[in-house]
Amino acid sequence: MEKSKDKANQKFYLTDYEYQKNVNLSIQYNRWLLKPMGLWPNSYTSKDYPYWLINIVCYCLISFLFIPCTLYLFLEIEDFYGKLKQFGPLIFCMMAFVKYYYLIFHKTDIRECVERIKWDWRNITYAKDREIMIMYANFGRKLVMVCTFFMYSGFAFYYIAIPISVGRVKTDNLTFVPLVFPFSRFIVDTRYSPTNEIVFSIQLMAGALMHGITSAACSLVATFAVHACGQMQVLMNWLQHLIDGRLDMDERLDGRIADVIRQHVRVLKFLALTEKTLQQISFTEFLGCTLDICLVGYYVIMESKSNDVTSVITYIILLISLTFNIFIFCYIGEIVAEECRKIGEISYMIEWYRLMGNKKLFCILIIAMSNSSIKLTAGNIVNLSISTFTDVVKTAVTYLNVLQKTT
């Protein structure tokens, strides 16, 4: 038993295969989500131009939904509920447009975060620390999978289930498929074939893109925040063995102190970079989803009165998807805050009295200042917590009551 424990604490060196496997464990799903949309960070080479082309195409697809629907809203709809019913999709379009812009704007910062994750995997030399990083990487992958599943469940119901349930509409000697996003007749009459099929197909691609952008933003927040939590857990393990050392740590106290300080600095820089990269995206997601939750909840109430079962189920799925999306953001913020609290607790539990001379004062000052900085920086990554999620739900219920009274 003792031999297996010692073996787990020994230093080791990763092979290239193991290194690539561990890196993919952290960022593979992010790459799959971001690369088709031209958002995955790549080096500045002559081959960079296809990404700009993809970005332009994606902007055009979002605009293809937003502009005709806006014209239809203000020029062709007269009743209040009809107008209100289009505000939800338009808000989602605006969210996707803004998030896509920020993802492009922060592509360099995303690349830097990815490189820091790679650096952490390359320079890990302790078996126990590697196990911690693998555990958190697997947790991050599960969060990404769950977020993507919920977002594309809403897409499948809203963009596919409703058109299939409604079927082709026959009117004025015309047969056409009803569009998910209304298209203004001031641009083109989409009731005629093949215009109807072409517009419907483009809207389907644009919808998949918008839900993909939301999934990509959520996956980045989950991956970076969970990786930061893993690095903080590694730091806590080092702090626990700072005084007596560990079989896989430096034999000299000065060396262990230097390792702890370097890990503090790496965590601080990664958290600061994560905050810079994701704060605007998180705020956009939080604000837009809050508004859409209020509107979609109102749609559920109104559609249930008309006994439209398919629409009710679809809007309930969308409501669950949006609510879960905000919950994930709040949950991630809660996890980061909890890890920060643990660092503070462990720092004060160290037997500082066993250090001699200036080392005691020096270590206390460094770790105390670093812990305060970690808490401040980590708290600004998403600025959300479980209590914030509860406030969102209460706000949504309040606005639903207001909407019901106005109608």
Short structural description:
A two-stranded antiparallel ribbon has the order 1-2. It has helices spanning 2-8, 16-34, 49-75, 80-105, 107-122, 127-166, 195-240, 253-305, 309-349, 358-378, 386-406; strands spanning 169-171, 174-176. Mean pLDDT is 79; it is low at 1-8.
Rg, please?
Answer: 26 Å
User: How large is the share of residues in beta strands?
Assistant: under 5%
Identify the overall geometry: elongated
List the strand order in the largest sheet: 1-2
Oligomeric grouping of the chains: single chain
Decide which structural class fits the backbone.
mainly alpha
Query: What is the end-to-end distance?
Result: 71 Å
Note the run of SSEs as H and E: HHHHHHEEHHHHH
- Overall mean pLDDT score? 79
Count of separate structural domains: 1
Main sheet, how many strands, which sense, barrel? 2 strands, antiparallel
Helical proportion?
A: over 70%
Q: What count of helical segments does DSSP give?
A: 11
Unreliable residue runs = 1-8
Number of strands: 2
Describe the structure.
This protein is mainly α and 407 residues long. It has one domain. 78% of the residues lie in helices and 1% in strands. It has eleven helices and two strands. A two-stranded antiparallel ribbon has the order 1-2. Strand 1 (169-171) and strand 2 (174-176) form a beta hairpin. Helix 6 (127-166) runs antiparallel to helix 9 (309-349). It is elongated and about 90 Å long. The model is unreliable at 1-8 (pLDDT under 50). Pfam families: 7tm_6. It is found in: Cell membrane. The chain crosses the membrane at residues 52-75, 87-105, 143-162, 198-226, 283-301, 313-332. This is Odorant receptor.
